[in-house]
Design a protein that fits this description.
This protein has 298 residues and is mainly α. The chain has eleven helices and two strands.
Length: 298
Amino acid sequence: MPSVQDHYPDHNFAVFARDARDSLTPNETQRTTLIVAGCYIVAIAILWHLPYLSAIIYPFKLLTVGFHEMSHAIAGILTCAHIHSIELDPDEGGATRMSGGIPWITLPAGYLGSSFIGAALIACGFDTNASKIASLAMAGFFIFTLWWARRNWLTWLLILGMSGLIVLFWFVAGGVALRFFVLFIGVMSCMYVLWDVVDDTIARKVNGSDASSFAEICGCCPSQVWGVIWLIQAFAFFAAGVVIGLVAFKQSAAQQAEDSRHFLPVPGSSAALQVVPAGLSSTLLCAVATVAILLHKW
C-alpha cells in the first residue's frame, strides 16, 4: 500500500500551478491596463518612424535617451568613475562623459538600465499608489540628471516639461491619469531599447555604438551578437515588468481609488488637507534648496 507521503509532491505541484495560474490571470482592472499597454505599443510603433507625426512622441524619445545616459552615469558612479557631464542631443542622441570606471559594466549599462527602468515603470503602471512612488523616483532621476547636465538647455526644457506633465496628471481622476502616464513612459523606454539596439547594432545604421565599443573591449564576439543578447534581455525585462504587475497589484480600480485617497492624496482633497500642512514647509524648503544648488553650480 503506497504511503501518503508519495502523493505530496504531486499535490504540492498542483497547488503551486493553481496559485501561479490565479496570480497571472488578470482581473478586470489589469485587463484594462494590458489593453492600454497594447495600444501604447501599436501607437508608438506607428509614430516612431512617420515624418511629422513622430514629433508627437519626440519629447518622450529624448526622455528615454536620458534614462539611457543616466544608466551609464549610475554604473560609472558604482565603479568609481568621475562623471563629467550628460548631454542630450536634439537629434535624439546623447552622451555621458566620464573618466575611470569599468567599461565592462558602464557600456552595457545604458541599454540594460533603460530596460530595467522601463520594466519597473510598467509594473508600477498597474497600480495608482505604485505610480505615485515611481513619479517620486523619477523626480530623483531628474535632479541627478540636471546636476550632470546643468549646462544643457535641452535637458532643462525636457525635464521641466515632464515634471509639469507629472504634476498635471497627478491631479486628474485621483491619480488614475498618472498611472497610465507612468505606464506609457515604461512602454516607451522598453520600446526605445528594442529599436535602438536594432538600429545601432543589428541593422548597423550607425558606425559607433555601445555594442561596438563593448565588442572591441571583450574581443570575443562581434557587435551584432551583443546586440542580439541585449535585445533578448530587453524582451525579458519587458515581460518581467508585466508579470510583476499582474502578480503584485491585484486591487480593483475602486480599491486603488480608495487607497490613493490616503496615500499622497491629490492636493486640495479632504485627505490632502490633513497631510499637506505638516509636510508643506519641509517640501518647499527641499525644492528651494535643490534649485539654489543647481543654479549655483551653473
